[in-house]
Amino acid sequence: MASAETHASKRKQRPLSPHLQIYSPLINMVMSILHRITGAALYVGTLLLAWWLIAAATGPAYFNFVSGLFASPVGLLVLFGYTWALLHHMIGGLRHFVWDTGRGFDLGTIDTLSWGTIIISLVLSVAIWAWGLMAKGII
Amino acid sequence: MSTTLRPTPSPTEAHIRTPLAKARGLGSAHSGTEHFWHQRVTGVANAILVIVVLVQVARLTGADHATVKAALKSPLLSMPLLLLILSGMVHMRLGMQTIIEDYASSEGAKVVALMLNTFFVILVGFACVYAVAKISFGA
Ligand code: HEM
For chain A, how many structural domains are there in total? Predict the structure, then answer.
C-alpha cells in the first residue's frame, strides 16, 4: 500500500513533455491539423452525398424534400463548408505530393504553400458556388 | 549436460528466412509501404475526379428532380462519379485508419474502431453505387 502510494506520487512528479497548447500556433501546425480535420469531415460528409443520390434514385417527392433541406440556411452553410473542406483538403493533398518529391521543405516555401492553400481554397469555394447559383439565375 | 545450447538465431539470419520472405522483404508487420502508396494513388485519382464531378454538380444547384436524374443518367457524370466513389472508399478508409491508430487508447478499442471504419466505408460506398446504378439503369 505505502509503496504503491509512493510510487503514484513519484509518477505525478515526473515532468511531462509540453503538449500542443504550450506552443503558439504556427501556420504549418494549423495546416497539418486542418488536413486531418477536413479529411475526417469529408469522411462523415459522404453520408450527405449518399443521401442526395438515394433521394434522386427514390423519386421526385422525396428528392424535393431533401433538396429543400439542403437549400435551407443551415443546409447551405453545411454544403459550403463541405465544398471548402474538399478543396482545402485537395490542395493540401497536392502540397503533400510536392513534399513527397523531396521539394518544398524550406520554411519560406512551407509558409507560402500554407497561405496559398487557405486563400485559393476559399476563393475557389466562393467561385464555384457563385457559378452554380448563377447557372440557376439565383444571383 | 550433453547438448550444447546455441543462442536463438536472429530472424534476420539468412538460414531462418525462407527465400520467399527474403524476396518480399517484409518484417513481422507483414506489410510495407502499401498504405502510404495507396493513399497517394487514390489521392491523385480523387483530385482529378473531384474537379470533373464538382464542376458538373455545381451546375445542378437548385435543379429539380428531372434535371438531376438526367444529369446522373449521363455517363459524363455517372462514370467519374462512380470512379470517385471507388477511389474515395479506399482513400477514406486508409485515412481514417491512420487517425484511429494515432488516437485509439487501447488495442481493443483500436480493433473495434478499425472494423467499424471498414463497415462504414463499405455501407456508404455501396449505397452511393446502388443509387447511381439504379438511376443509370432506368429508375
Ligand atoms: C480531392 C482530392 C484529395 C486529395 C488530393 C487527397 C490527398 C490526401 C493525402 C495526400 C493524404 C495523406 C496525408 C498524410 O500523409 O499526412 C490524405 C489523407 C486523408 N484523406 Fe484525402 N485527399 C483527397 C480527397 C479526400 C476525400 C474525398 C476524403 C474523404 C471522403 C479524404 C479523406 C482523407 C482522410 C480521412 C485522410 C487522413 C488524414 C490524416 O491522416 O490526418 N480525402 N488525403
Answer: 1
| Best mutation site among B34, B38, B46 for ligand 1 pocket (most ligand atoms within 8 Å of CB) | B46
The residue range of the domain holding A78 is: 25-135
- Prediction ipTM score: 0.86
Q: Which residue of B has its CA nearest to A47?
A: B124
Q: Do B131 and A54 touch (CB under 8 A)?
A: yes
Q: Can you give the CATH number for the domain in which A103 is found?
A: 1.20.1300.10
Cβ separation A133–B127 shorter than 8 A: no
Each residue's pLDDT expressed in tens, for chain B with a length of 139 residues:
456 777 776 666 656 778 888 888 888 777 889 999 999 999 999 999 999 999 999 999 999 999 999 999 999 999 999 999 999 999 999 999 999 999 999 999 999 999 999 999 999 999 999 999 999 998 5
DSSP conformation letters of A76-135 = HHHHHHHHHHHHHHHHHHHHHHHHHTT---SHHHHHHHHHHHHHHHHHHHHHHHHHHHHH
| pTM summary value | 0.87
**CB–CB of A28/A13 below 8 Å?**
no
Distances (CA, A) of A117 to A71, A73, B72, B92: 28, 27, 31, 21
Kindly state whether B116 is in contact with chain A, defined as any CB-CB distance less than 8 angstroms.
Answer: no
Q: How far is the CA of A26 from the centre of ligand 1 (A)?
A: 21
* CATH dotted code for B32-136: 1.20.1300.10
In the reported structure, the alpha carbon of residue A89 is separated from the centroid of ligand 1 by a whole-number distance in angstroms of 6
Q: Is B100 in the pocket of ligand 1 (CB under 6 A)?
A: no
